[in-house]
Design a protein that fits this description.
The protein is mostly beta strands. About 15% of the residues lie in helices and about 40% in strands. The N and C termini lie far apart (about 155 Å).
């Protein structure tokens, strides 16, 4: 039998549908490339319509931006406190501060009758306690709370409650700029659009070094000298605030405003010879003419009873001020004399023993204290008997 030859014919593959794509038609060994009708029509229109081509190219960046752009952010707003109002940790929650009227606070959001705001300002570093861990850096540790100021030693913008938690923002010598986000009663604030200078007194930048608005608060022992490493002019009470005028290395030139005793002319003339004219003034003489005795220098023999610290009820002292409780020697044992002790005299005063007799040179602060009626002297010199 003879062999039969079978003719193989190539069958064209099925055409895959698809608009805008190229397709291959391999028919009977001949490869042909065709484009879909839709793509061909689009290409012809673009060739004959250059304006359309430009608009499509210009549309591409806009489409990309439309896919990635974020919604526009609403203009920031502030809450201006209209009355002295509490700032709370949460709506109807614990009070963390009391904000003064007129202060602008950054607005976070409004929720019903409450607004969430950000309070920011400067607090005295010694009144804050460092916290370990958590969302807050400090706790107000001062008894009764602490003032929050627009700048170091500046205007008070709020009163921070004891125990309030705060975040640190910035630092200056002796001061820390802190922040607290909390809630306030909405009817107590006016909501406004933030101006370029808005943000409250707490957002005021710290003063430059050497400007008269920068400040310093005296520590436990802060003598004021007439020059760097010079003679002592006075010793400041703890917490005394001064304006810093200039700096020189670790020294600062400061300004202190206060009052000094300026007696009538006849008393001042009598004391020009070194104050000897008032050294003979007795306790009875002070009690007999209290107004004339105020500020006079006296020398008295006293018997030491105890070393005390003034309580808040003793309004003729500052709270915590050390003083000697003494009795006049050779007089009625029921009478007492208080002797206020400056920091530089504490070493000598701490070494006294009960019932020891001492010679006290002091200046009459008052002839009769408000609490007990006993005279108070500011200690100038303390002499112990040998």
């Amino acid at each position: 039998m003879g062999m039969r030859t079978v003719e193989r014919r190539k069958v064209p593959p099925p055409v895959q549908p698809g608009h805008g794509k190229w397709r291959i038609d391999a028919s009977f060994g001949t490869r042909q490339i065709q484009e879909s009708p839709i793509l061909r029509l689009t290409r012809q229109r673009m060739v004959h319509a250059p304006a359309l081509r430009v608009s499509r190219r210009a549309l591409l960046p806009l489409l990309l931006l439309a896919g990635t752009a974020e919604p526009l952010v609403a203009q920031s707003r502030v809450a201006v406190v209209s009355v002295r109002e509490n700032l709370r940790a949460e709506p109807n929650g614990v009070v963390v501060a009391v904000v003064e009227p007129g202060i602008s606070l950054s607005l976070v959001r409004q929720q019903g009758s409450w607004v969430e705001v950000v309070l920011e300002g400067w607090a005295w570093e010694a009144s804050l306690q460092t916290r370990d861990g958590g969302a807050y850096d400090f706790r107000v540790g001062a008894d009764g709370g602490e003032n929050l100021r627009a700048r170091p030693s500046g205007d008070i913008v709020a009163r921070l409650e004891e125990g309030a938690l705060l975040r640190e923002v910035d630092r200056a010598p002796g001061w820390i700029r802190v922040q607290r986000q909390a809630w306030m009663w909405a009817p107590s604030v006016d909501l406004r659009d933030a101006s370029p200078n808005a943000g409250g007194a707490a957002s005021t930048p710290p003063p430059s070094v050497g400007s008269p608005t920068s400040g310093f608060r005296a520590g436990p022992s802060s003598p004021v000298l007439n020059a760097p490493d010079g003679d002592t002019l006075t010793v400041l009470r703890p917490g005394t605030e001064l304006a810093v005028l200039a700096r020189q290395g670790n020294w600062a030139r400061v300004r202190l405003e206060g009052w000094v005793w300026m007696p009538p002319v006849e008393i001042a003339v009598a004391g020009e010879s070194g104050g000897e004219a008032s050294l003979d003034l007795t306790l009875d003489g002070v009690l007999a003419n209290p107004e004339a005795a105020r500020g006079r220098l006296v020398t008295w023999e006293l018997q030491f009873v105890s070393l005390e610290e003034a309580e808040a009820v003793r309004t003729d002292f500052y709270e915590g001020e050390p003083f000697l409780l003494t009795r006049p020697v050779g007089e009625d044992a029921t009478r007492f004399v208080y002797v206020a002790i400056p920091p530089e005299q504490m070493t000598v005063a701490s070494g006294l023993t009960p019932l020891e007799r001492v010679t006290v040179v002091g200046r009459v602060r008052t002839a009769a204290s408000a609490l007990t009626g006993a005279p108070i002297l500011d200690l100038v010199e303390l002499r112990r008997r040998r």
